[in-house]
Design goal:
It is a single chain. The protein has 393 residues and is of the alpha+beta class. The protein has two domains: 313 residues, no CATH class; 50 residues, no CATH class. The strands form four sheets. Strands 1-2-19-18-17-3-4 form a seven-stranded mixed β-sheet, sandwiched between helices. A hairpin with a 5-residue loop joins β14 and β15. The longest helix is centred in the first third of the chain and has 27 residues. The two termini are 21 Å apart.
Length: 393
């Protein structure tokens, strides 16, 4: 059973004051739970090691996809293949941050990879800031978490300049390059998450600005501009697959900008490979029976399984199937037109009330922060965020 500690919830007024405006769900219930999951130091260390190992495996799988030209097989839109290849070939296209979704890790259950949110992962604000504030507001040791997300992403921005080198060399090699941060107008969660990332880049030492996507100017020959100023880096909180499908002209222009070396796009286009749930099948082929993986296939399995669209989000069109392929449970039908991967089912840890818990583990050069989502067997848009605390720290 998932061990929990009751805590006094943060007030909506406080959450508003720090820019966390999506604190109440559409049914008027709090999005942030009034409990914290208790984990041991050994469990936190196991999550950390799992994230690092899984990322290395994804890099090997990425090499395999590129070398064998498997872009179609994993659902990469044709108009982004060149961008994916170009970004994969050069380390300057640095992966800033991502989040692994994991089953297990607590209550004696083994850690298993469910999926990898590598491009535009949600829950950054709540993992980096809100759960830390929750401990502090309750008079608990705010350091009693596996949570250095803010510092890890800040340092990873520095690696845009030093790559795998010494972070202290940033000031030596930094030449005033600027990062423009963008989200879509009217989406307050995306905007404030983007502004949080901007603050991390500010703290790293970059010159930054924020602009909504409709305010940004793009030129194949000259690069990316906002209010007449050119930016060497553009961070967009817009999924690459959305750009490919809904903004084909922009996909083409961004590819040309990369080819002409006029700007670097963050997160890089190659994160779309990692984002595709088809990579679960590639991983299983490369690392069969690995203890962190669940059997995955492009064809239905003969065990209880989960059917997932390649680029679905928040449980959309996810289906739990029995051994005969009959649907037991399904999420909201949002991505029915997408190809699917089939992954062996694993039961999520549960609390006394029967709620299920899925670990979200942020990765920025290394595993850097843990949080949980709570809900049913399929975690949809109405799942709750649950912070954690490390026992005995």
């Amino acid at each position: 059973m998932v061990p929990l500690k009751k805590v006094k919830p943060l007030t909506p007024e406080f959450l508003d004051s720090i820019g966390f405006h999506w604190h109440t769900d559409s049914d008027e219930s709090p999005y942030v739970a009034g409990e914290a999951v208790i984990v041991t130091e050994a469990e936190a260390e196991a999550y950390y090691e799992a994230a690092n190992e899984l990322y290395d495996m994804y890099v090997q799988a990425g090499d395999y996809v590129v070398e064998n030209n498997l872009f179609h097989e994993i659902g990469i839109p044709f108009n982004l293949v060149d961008a994916v290849k170009k970004s994969w070939e050069n380390d300057v296209h640095w992966h800033i941050y991502s989040r692994f979704d994991l089953a297990g890790g607590i209550d004696g259950k083994p850690i298993k990879l469910l999926e990898f949110n590598a491009d535009t992962p949600t829950a950054l604000f709540e993992t980096a800031i809100v759960q830390w504030a929750l401990l502090k507001a309750n008079g608990l040791n705010e350091a009693a978490q596996f949570n250095h997300v803010y510092e890890a992403i800040r340092d990873n921005f520095k690696r845009l300049i030093v790559l795998n080198g010494d972070l202290e060399a940033f000031e030596t090699y930094y030449k005033g390059w600027k990062i423009l941060f963008s989200s879509i107008r009217g989406h307050i969660e995306d905007e404030n998450t983007t502004r949080l990332l901007q603050k991390m880049a500010d703290d790293a030492g970059f010159h930054t600005a924020f602009a909504f996507v409709d305010e940004v100017e793009f030129s194949e020959e000259d690069g990316i501009f906002y209010e007449g100023e050119q930016y060497e880096y553009w961070f967009k909180l817009i999924p690459w697959e959305t750009i490919a499908i809904e903004e084909g002209d922009l996909a083409r222009i961004l590819t040309k900008i990369m080819e002409n070396q006029k700007a670097i796009i963050l997160n890089p286009a190659y994160t779309l490979m990692f984002q595709s749930k088809a990579m679960l099948k590639i991983l299983w082929d490369l690392f069969p029976n690995h203890p962190l993986l669940l059997e995955s296939s492009f064809e239905p399995l003969d065990v209880k399984q989960v059917q997932k669209p390649f680029f679905g989000r928040e449980g959309g069109s996810v289906k739990i199937l029995d051994e005969k392929g009959e649907v037991i449970e399904s999420g909201e039908a949002l991505y029915e037109d997408q190809p699917c991967v089939y992954q062996a089912f694993t039961e999520l840890p549960a609390d006394a009330a029967g709620h299920r818990y899925q670990a979200g583990l942020f990765f920025a050069y290394e595993g850097c922060g843990l949080g949980y989502r709570r809900g049913g067997e399929i975690l949809g848009n109405m799942s709750k965020f649950v912070g954690h605390m490390i026992e005995g720290v």
